[in-house]
């Protein structure tokens, strides 16, 4: 078959009538239409962070119940500022991170290269640390980072009681608590508490606007007024004081209006999807049931066979199942991340089982 390229996959996904995992990618023209609906385009744009950016910051602070929130062009920048703040305030350059956390796997260790910080790992288990593990740290940390959910462990969350105990243990050890909340929006249903209550356990919380909410880009760092003042200064020093960011701000506000109220429905339906997938021959789902609307699926076929089968299924039947299959340490078994968003709501458990079976049949032929 022709090469399975990114452009070919995107074209196939856009042409599909039904999508199980993920969403249909929008063109630039479609995103421009989104901007028309997102705000008053006859109003003045922002100039170095006022206007719609200020509106967005105030909205996030209100949702999280914090004194302030500061817009950042990237989450990587926001998180480095949060860790610097803790180190500067305490004089301690040590931060407690998880080896599967975003700072370690996806930010090129920016906390170390840019700020001279060093990490200790409370645990290497594929879950967030426990209160006992924080208390038992071999050396004090200025900040304890908790990723909600821990994506590279399978989008897993602690329980509310575990999270509250973990935050209390960190403070008892003299550390700040920072929530890597890029996906905090889908964490609230499992934790069973409001965004304000969740953020209230932390000294600072980072949120993303393009993950889950569908914004163009951008993030925010929320916390006290003192943190916000510090964050604005360091945002400028890191090069994040961009002249105009109104497209990102408007689409973020639109995402808060449009997507945020629907996320509990996505999380509920993800459990239906996961249970149906787990019934496929040789399949494994984790966690079961999912904690958020994303989870991991393993099937007993090589990644190349599953990726090619998924692509042909999309091109020939206009049905998108899941892509991004990766081989695992178990020969002949591949894993993919499943995201049950708005397009998946139309899928019944029977639909998932039927199409999954057709995917497996095709994969067996490669």
Verbal overview:
- By secondary structure, this protein is of the alpha/beta class.
- It has two domains: 6-26 and 261-364, Aspartate Aminotransferase, domain 1; 46-243, Type I PLP-dependent aspartate aminotransferase-like (Major domain) (Aspartate Aminotransferase, domain 2).
- It has 15 helices and 13 strands.
- The chain has helices at 6-15, 28-38, 52-64, 75-90, 102-105, 110-115, 131-135, 160-172, 188-191, 195-199, 225-237, 246-258, 263-278, 303-317, 349-364; strands spanning 18-19, 68-72, 94-96, 118-120, 143-147, 176-181, 204-208, 219-223, 284-286, 294-299, 319-320, 326-327, 334-339.
- The strands form three sheets. Strands 2-8-7-6-5-3-4 form a seven-stranded mixed β-sheet, sandwiched between helices. A four-stranded antiparallel β-sheet has the order 9-10-13-12, with helices on one face.
- The longest helix has 16 residues, at 75-90.
Key traits:
single chain, alpha/beta, Aspartate Aminotransferase, domain 2, 7-stranded mixed sheet, 15 helices, globular, PyrdxlP-dep_Trfase, lyase activity, Beta-eliminating lyase-related protein, pyridoxal phosphate, ArAA_b-elim_lyase/Thr_aldolase
Order of helices and strands: HEHHEHEHHEHEHEHHEEHHHEEHEEEH
Q: Provide the β-strand percentage band.
A: 5-15%
According to CATH, the homologous superfamily of the largest domain is: Type I PLP-dependent aspartate aminotransferase-like (Major domain)
- Counted up, domains total 2
What is the alpha-carbon Rg in Å?
21 Å
Gross morphology: globular
CATH hierarchy, class of the largest domain: Alpha Beta
Q: Mean pLDDT across all residues, rounded?
A: 97
Largest sheet: 7 strands, mixed
Major β-sheet strand ordering: 2-8-7-6-5-3-4
Task: Tell me the structural class.
Answer: alpha/beta
As for the CATH topology of the largest domain, it is Aspartate Aminotransferase, domain 2
Number of strands: 13
Query: What level of helicity do the residues show?
Result: 40-55%
Keywords: Lyase, Pyridoxal phosphate
Protein name: Beta-eliminating lyase-related protein
Family: Belongs to the threonine aldolase family.
Cofactor: pyridoxal 5'-phosphate
